[in-house]
Amino acid sequence: MNESYHYNKTGLVKISVLFFFLITTSIANFTKAAGDPAKGEPLFKANCASCHHPDKKGTGPALRGVQARWEAAGIGADLYLWVKNPNAVISKGHAYVNDLLNEWKPKSGIMAAQGVSDEQIDDILAYIESYTEPVAANNNTSVVETNSKEESGSGWMWYVILLTIFLIIAISAGSVRRQLVNANRAQQGLEELPDESYWTIWKKWAWRNKYITTFVILVFLLGGTLDVWYRLLDIGVYENYKPEQPIKFSHQLHAGQNKIPCQYCHHTVEKSKHASIPSPMLCMNCHKAINNGPQYGKEEIAKIYKAVGYDPDEAQYIKDYQQQPIKWIKVHSLPDHVFFSHQQHVVAGKLDCKQCHGEMEKETVARIMPHEELNKIDGNIKIDRATLTMGWCIECHNKTEVKGIANEGKGNEYYAEMWQRLKKRPELLKKHLEDEKITVAELGGWECAKCHY
Amino acid sequence: MNNNKTYWKGIEELEQSPSFLAKRENEFPEEIAIDEFLGDNKLKETSTARRDFLKFMGFSLAAATLAACESPVVNSIPYIQKPDDVDPGVANWYASTYYDGYDYASILVKTREGRPIFIKGNKKFGINKGAGTARITASVLPLYDTARLSGPTIDGNYSDWATVDAQITKTLENIAKTGGKTVLLTNTIISPSTLSVIDTFKNKVYPEGSEANFEHVTYDALSYSAIRQANKDSFDLAVIPDYDFSKAKVIVSISADFLTNWLLHTEYIGQYLQNRKPENEWMSRHFQYESILSVTGANADVRVAIKPSEEVLVAAAIYQHISGNKIANVPQHLLELTADAAKELKNAGNASLVVAGSNNVVLQTIVNAINDKLGNYTTTINLNNPVSLFQGNDKEVAELMDEIRAGKIKALIMYGVNPVYTLPNGKEFAELLSKIELTVSFNGYADETASKCKYVCPDHHYLEAWNDFQVKKNHYALAQPAIRPLYETRAAQESLMVWCGEAQRGDKDNDTYYNIIKANWALYGFPQQTAYTTVEEYWNYMVHNGSGSTELTPPSAVPFMADLSVLGQKITSSDGPESWEVVLYTNAAMGIGNQANNPWLQELPDPITKVTWDNYITMSPADMKELGFNTHIGQEEPASVASIKVGETEMKLPVYPQPGQARKTVGIALGYGRGENGENIGKSAFQYGQYGEPLMQDGKPVSVGKNAFIFTSFVNGYISYSNVVSSINDANENYLLACTQTHHTIMGRNSVVRETTFSFYKTAPKEAYNEPHELHYYGEHKPVEEIDLWKSHPVEEVGHRWGMSVDLNTCIGCGNCLVACQAENNVPVVGKDEIRRSRDMHWLRIDRYYSSDMNKEKAKQEHIGAISMYAQMEIPSENPEVVFMPMMCQHCNHAPCETVCPVAATTHSNEGLNMMAYNRCIGTRYCANNCPYKVRRFNWFNYTAYKKFTAFNPSQDDMMRMVLNPDVTVRTRGVMEKCTMCVQRIQAGKLEAKKAGKKVKDGDIVTACADSCPTDAITFGDWNDENSQIRKNSESKRAYQALEEVGVKPNIWYLLKVRNVEKEMVQKHHEPHTEEKHNEHA
Fold it and tell me: Looking at this predicted complex, what is its ipTM?
């Protein structure tokens, strides 16, 4: 059902209907558990989802009906203890628990203790029981985006068609006019006008209206030059660059809807110059359990399985599989002579990801955000230069305050030392503090060898 | 008035001859070959008209331009499963050990994304205490050499391991069954686990009763087996003892180059340098007696040039002085030349050390006797802690040759040796190999020897392999892989285990040998220590540290038993002053030639001669003049080629003038001339022409240099590395040498190099030996720093101010920093032709200056005019004093290069760095012209693509480019580059400090050169940090700045050289005994 879904108005209607259906079925399930599934959903996603799925085996067993199973085994109360401290339950040595361990421990180890309260466990259990496979996403933003993209893509065609129609009308009007003139002349007994080509006629007309012609030519020349100039300025500017990626990954779904923090996947951002694209095995942390998604889920997640060699039906890795790395297309690609370090900006500079990457939680695959969009972000410095150009970098370096040295570098020995040294040159410090802050540029952030070596 | 003169342009015009009149009508006096040019019918047949052609041209130009605007699609491919410890962009360091049968060092390997890219000494663990050599630092590059064998071969054709194993096992079995003899020929194996594997192999293939049919012969290309024999004769201990240079106040070395080549030089270098700091209470005094000018000799306080045949006599003379016993007839001049050394030795008593380099039992035994008389066996020499290097037994090697000739050897397995290249009779050995039923080599290349073997079973590169080492009795070390094997290679130990049926061949990730090592360490190593409680903990720490020591047995006296009177009879007097002798030495770059395919080492200027990409005959300039050889060698001034004959062997080599070379001796470096028969040992071992085409001779590629091992010989059962020359003649040929320094003296300018003597330094005020420079200023004298053209850069006090100091006293000129810089900063290799044209790209050079007999005082006294004085200053002394001066960008605060750059591509940072933005540079080269230090380097070519450099520049090879440092840009044609003070390391270091919220500690940030310097001569740090070493060094009494008078305010300080010697002493020793004494100085 969801496979056949397309971005169009009828689709939207379908979503609404399905969504309504989903909600009602959820309500129907409400009564079964004491907890609140609405509260349970985020808890489940935060604590359990990386290993468990309600209906599918993942790193750990499928959870639907777990409470009933434990109660049937006569250890219903221990389920709460299990979640909070699995080792405590293991030491009790229940037969049911031992069976579970025999099945799961060899491949997945023992579950980690979760920091949740009993009420929260109730909520989670309620959510598990009420869970239904999501059938479609309420992904309005991408619908709009796709449509607008199509419009802008076909716009120039209309201009060509209009222009052609205009030309045809103009030419036919011209010939009609000449026939009329000739008919008139014939009536008056004059000779027919010589059969001149359009070119000669136009030349004669242009000669008669020299000023207009000159003006029009000048306008076109000037316009053309300007157009070429602006096009040249665009060389090396990749704002809105959004190549098609091997996997139709959606940041909107992962970071937006599911609120997975950026660092979970781009986890080297604080220790390396690269934020790095996650390895497929990292995806498998969750996708062992989640093998379907709202839109392209099934095919796209299958690509991860293909890369790492995982059999979702058997819920295990295929032995001796020739793994196939995924060839992503680098989007934020700086030239080789530029040294850029994520850790410098994120850890030392304390920048938020979105200050340079914009609201990725509303995007599908990565896109270079144009500076206009970035300027709209709260607290961002307004920059006139295009994103990822050198002007963009140095404009930001010029205006951004070095957070470490603000407040005399308190809390960071390095900056405290820099502040102490700066105080030895009061006149320099005074000059730096004219705008009441010490900017990156003032500490050398504009120097060539900070980025080029 | 009208001008009625007639001008005519030829006699024909004047005569108005008919042929002239006919021709006059034509525009061109001669027929133009248009038809010839256009008559080509093929051209007419083509349908492409000229206009079309222009259209196509125009279109392609436009298309190319447009295409250039498109950005290429860059792919990013993450790991399938990211290893826990590997983060893209973050370097990992692994402790390991380097040992190739010649050099030994504990090292740290830097890897990026799993690729080893940089090697340096391990400062925390290991006996070398961080010291390395150029060879060790450069050893990362051959890992990526595409000439390495990518799998086992049979008769030169690639096969697979299963086939090779099956065939070898079967042949071995047959040989063992029929009672045939198997010989394992290896270099010195210091790995306990490898020895255990060999033992297992022996016991399995030749079980009890037939052990005699298996022999393990150890053969070192550079042999020290005489030292072992001498110690056996002297103390009944066939060992190489543990030397400790740090306890010696007086060091006498008879041709032992213990700073760059002799024995365990990576350890000695640190010990020696401990006592070469004038800030200490005392400095060691170092006497060197040698024929060639070695790096060690260049650093000696007193150096005496002797002939190789005089070495024994020098030792005998010293013994005579010390003990009063005459053991041989020593000529009077040698007694005089050794008097001071002997006196000093006697005074120092057991705080002294005498060492000798030659593989000569008589010499080594006398040296033992001297050390015994001085009491050094209880202090500086430890017989209880023998060194396991160089166990080669020359006699056994000679016997092996006889046995092969006699057809007794049925199987020969060779590991780590290349006898076809290194044996004096290597050619014969190559022929003999065909007589043996089974020949196997473990070499990683199809080299001189391996290519003659039936089977080649390539071993891993050492960076891909596990191994262990026991370099001394009390010191163990481990080597761990820093990368998964690149090719289908297999550890030699595993091969042996497979062939004797003790292991199964899996794939290249097999851990057979790893398990053996681990088991051995658990069994033998673990019980010997108490620091770790479990085997696992012990093992992990050992892998992490790379090495560990057990308790040291202190030295104790052993009675000296050799009979010197018998020895004395063996000393034949030297062949007389008239005979020529040749010394075969190993230089700092090539060693014994294991890495002849390493372009970094080939391009490393020899520390002394500064010649790259060649070996040559070194000869005293005075001798050269007598023989009529060209003594001035330059870009277009070739060296004369001499034809030198030793015994019946003849070789042609260029002659290089070497001040300090003993008269009537010549020196030739070993390790060159690899791949003489065109063996595929790596492209950089061969020579290339001006356009990168391989130079060919008789259908074979021409090697770099010539193989001098053919001049070695077996003398009394020992391989001798000096020999008598039968003849040396002018071959009437010329040969261009690529030399990075063609001027040799400092011409009396003390603003470049300053030096003083130890006693003067200790007693005189600073001004007396380190005079500050003053300038004339409107009739008065003012210090340089008070006169300025520019506003000063605000680098002092504020922020950081990166500075460097170079101690000329501890810099020994070895060139390790240069290779480290090349590896760290992706400096291209430009090849011999470009080096010759002075287009070397090294960011750091080491200037080597010789002293001259002429100086300003002398000229004044003797009324010598300025022109003649300077002319004479250019000529180095016959036995000069030497000073090494590392020279790199001085990061001037008033940099002359910055002011002349028209595009502001080179600017100053507020941290005192002189920055270079390659992408701004338009290549005017004004900056290079304006640099007083001449340290800027221009990219004349696109070294990463142009065919001239394809063969040797690492960045042109798909494999070798993996060695490039991803943090540093690879520069392109037309831009200037120079030392950046490793700004990438500075930036990374600051970031670490910011992240941790800590100050940058002194020593947190070091440049590659300082990092790799084995003597810590280079100090790098933040001058604004008042407690930093660099601040202290800059305020030292010895600190001065090069060319201070030009007022460019460098951020680099030099610490002047202090020689522990009195002037008179130098004069006495440095004057050649064959000439009459000068008396000008008296």
Answer: 0.83
